[in-house]
Automatic annotation (TrEMBL):
GO terms for molecular function: hydrolase activity, acting on carbon-nitrogen (but not peptide) bonds, in linear amides. SUPFAM superfamilies: LmbE-like. It comes from the Bacteria. Signal peptide: none annotated. Pfam families: PIG-L (PF02585). Keywords: Hydrolase, Zinc. It comes from Arthrobacter globiformis (strain ATCC 8010 / DSM 20124 / JCM 1332 / NBRC 12137 / NCIMB 8907 / NRRL B-2979 / 168). InterPro entries: GlcNAc_PI_deacetylase-related (IPR003737), LmbE-like_dom_sf (IPR024078). This is Putative hydrolase. One of its GO terms (biological process) is glycoside metabolic process.
Length: 259
């Protein structure tokens, strides 16, 4: 995308497409807060049920060697407090090892199982494509989340013969309507959510993750600038803030299975 190019058109129209349940996937505690906490706060304020799935325990995070023995419990507690600030209390973990996440069938089965249990209107996930402009968004675990979730969303979630033990346990196949991806390349982003009214809630949630922020002031300034830049790309008035997503319609009125 050139600097002055208009963003690609999103297939999602908030005036036409109703959202009642959302399931969010991230690699580590704090990822979803950086990527989407403003949008999540807006959803929960509107009565949307939002659940989180954190794929790793974040055991390789932090900066203080004295915290190593307690880092998993510490980061889980941080995530619970941060989630509550944006209206989320339902949090699931896949307990994968931080830095070792792979889009293998153990992980994909866990994703399929949870999607079939929650049966959301939107699955929100980290993006499977690397962001070369800011490679820090593309931790290998982040990319693995995006790949595992994208593979699970189609075809496994809607295929009753994929992971047949799940169907045998009563978790029937499910056609997901929407996949929203965050933390991906800017040129893929096609949907912007005005989160101006929820910026402070998002930042408060991020600040809860104190084990991860050696320079909290610089972190906050960077997050604010990023949201303002997103608003500018979306064509919103000066002073607004936005979060950006790559929205994909998985199943809609014109979807034909296998095409």
């Amino acid at each position: 995308m050139t600097p002055n190019a208009a963003p690609a058109q999103s297939p999602f129209n908030p005036e036409q497409h109703r959202i009642e349940r959302v399931l969010c996937f991230s690699a580590h505690p704090d990822d979803v807060d950086f990527g989407a906490a403003g949008t999540i706060a807006a959803w929960t304020a509107a009565g949307v049920e939002v659940s989180y799935c954190i794929m790793t325990d974040g055991d390789a995070g932090g900066f203080d060697p004295a915290q190593r023995a307690e880092i998993i419990a510490l980061r889980a507690a941080e995530q619970e407090r941060a989630a509550a600030l944006v209206g989320v209390t339902d949090i699931h973990y896949l307990h994968q090892r931080d830095g070792y996440l792979e889009p293998n069938h153990e992980v994909m089965r866990g994703v399929v199982k949870l999607i079939r249990e929650v049966r959301p209107d939107v699955v929100l996930s980290m993006h499977p494509e690397r962001n070369w402009k800011r490679i820090q968004k593309s931790h290998p675990d982040h990319l693995a989340v995006g790949e595992a979730v994208t593979r699970a969303v189609y075809p496994a979630v809607e295929n009753p013969f994929a992971y047949p033990d799940l169907a045998e346990a009563g978790l029937e196949a499910f056609k997901l309507p929407w996949l929203w991806l965050y933390a991906g390349p800017e040129e893929r982003e096609n949907h912007f959510v005005d989160v101006t009214e929820h910026v402070e809630s998002k930042l408060e949630a991020i600040h809860v993750h104190v084990s991860q922020h050696p320079d909290a002031e610089a972190m906050e300034a960077t997050v604010r600038r990023g949201m303002q830049a997103n608003a500018g790309r979306a064509g919103l008035p000066d002073g607004r803030s936005a979060e950006a997503f790559h929205v994909v319609m998985v199943n809609g009125p014109g979807t034909i299975a296998g095409f």
